[in-house]
């Protein structure tokens, strides 16, 4: 009897391993054999659970298979969803970006002929700068295209840079290894950034700082080497000769400040220029110092002519800025279809231009 009990336990152990391996038929056979050899509650319970749980287990097995299939299909579905997400740029925008980035010639970038007019150049720049601006065009490479448009305009709008470009091509420098020409580099590294140029055209004002970054870079590099050389040299005389030009410049600048005399007049009232006068010809107000009459009475006609020329020059500059700002605002309004902005541009006054007309009419 004890031998049958041991054999029954062995059959139960085999049945448990078969259940774990998923072989239910083999487990059932060994459980039935264990019951014949030595009936026990453990074998009966396992057999009962196996018989009653066959259908439930099959259902669970199917659920688990479905869950595994669902899990493996999720990445595909999410990748499909990802592919179906619409791009935030159009095919036309991408094509325009590729065209500009593929151009090697600044005339091709702006799509202008070599005999273009100033209005043609501005019109081409406005159109492409708005199309390529990173805030409006999200296509890959739009930022590089925007920079290329700005740099192309900076070359073609400058007579000297354009002449250099027409002579030497994109490198804009002759082949001889002159230090000056090496530092000039190519015209695409302009004195003004594409973003600053864009702001000038589209109402961002007129930039005044950080426009000569290339020059500052070379200056700092030359200063560095000037500083290193005295450390490498043990001669105090060498240090003196290196500092002598700097000291000479300091002395000359101090002397020039003493030698330069004050201006004869000012168009604005200040503490120094307090006496108000008016030109005899155009009746332009200007201000002089207290000793003006005694010192410059004989040159009065020449001085008043200089006053009028400076006044008209200021009006011309301000008139150009006012008209350019108004024109750019109207252009932007038409491009974006903004009726309110267009009306605002139309209502904008140009006082300097009006004053200039009055001067010419008088």
Backbone structural class? mainly alpha
**Biggest β-sheet description:** 3 strands, antiparallel
**Secondary-structure arrangement, i.e. CATH architecture of the largest domain:** Orthogonal Bundle
Instruction: Output the radius of gyration.
Output: 43 Å
Protein name: J domain-containing protein
Keywords: Endoplasmic reticulum, Membrane, Transmembrane, Transmembrane helix
Transmembrane segments: 239-265
Pfam families: DnaJ, DUF1977
Task: Characterise the protein shown here.
The chain starts with a helix and ends with a helix. The chain folds into 4 domains: 2-84; 93-205, Helix Hairpins (Orthogonal Bundle); 212-255; 262-361, no CATH class. The chain contains 16 helices and 3 strands. The chain is mostly helical.
């Amino acid at each position: 009897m004890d031998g049958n009990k041991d054999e029954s336990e062995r059959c139960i152990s085999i049945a448990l391993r078969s259940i774990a391996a998923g072989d239910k038929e083999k487990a059932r056979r060994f459980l039935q054999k264990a019951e014949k050899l030595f009936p026990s509650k453990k074998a009966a319970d396992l057999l009962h659970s196996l018989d009653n749980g066959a259908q439930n287990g099959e259902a669970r097995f199917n659920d688990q298979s479905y869950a595994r299939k669902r899990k493996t299909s999720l990445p595909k579905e999410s990748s499909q969803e990802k592919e179906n997400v619409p791009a935030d740029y159009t095919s036309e925008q991408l094509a325009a970006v590729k065209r500009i980035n593929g151009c090697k010639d600044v005339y091709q970038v702006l799509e202008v002929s070599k005999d273009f007019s100033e209005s043609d150049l501005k019109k081409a720049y406005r159109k492409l700068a708005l199309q390529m601006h990173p805030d409006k065009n999200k296509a890959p490479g739009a930022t590089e295209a925007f920079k290329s448009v700005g740099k192309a305009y900076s070359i073609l709008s400058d007579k000297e840079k354009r002449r250099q470009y027409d002579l030497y091509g994109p490198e804009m420098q002759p082949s001889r290894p002159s230090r000056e020409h090496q530092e000039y580099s190519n015209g695409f590294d302009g004195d003004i950034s594409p973003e600053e140029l864009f702001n000038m055209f589209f109402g961002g004002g007129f930039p005044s700082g950080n426009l000569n970054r290339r020059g500052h870079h070379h200056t700092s590099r030359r200063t560095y080497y000037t500083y290193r050389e005295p450390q490498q040299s043990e001669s105090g005389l060498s240090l003196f000769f290196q500092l002598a030009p700097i000291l000479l410049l300091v002395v000359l600048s101090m002397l020039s400040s003493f030698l330069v005399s004050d201006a004869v007049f000012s168009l604005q009232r200040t503490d120094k220029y307090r006496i108000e006068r008016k030109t005899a010809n155009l009746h332009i107000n200007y201000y002089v110092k207290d000793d003006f009459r005694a010192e410059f009475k004989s040159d009065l006609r020449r001085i008043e002519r200089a006053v009028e020329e400076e006044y008209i020059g200021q009006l011309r500059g301000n008139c150009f800025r006012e008209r350019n700002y108004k024109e750019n605002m109207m252009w932007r309004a038409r491009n974006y279809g903004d009726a309110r902005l267009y009306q605002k541009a139309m209502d904008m006054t140009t006082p300097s231009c009006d004053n200039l007309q009055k001067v010419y009419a008088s």
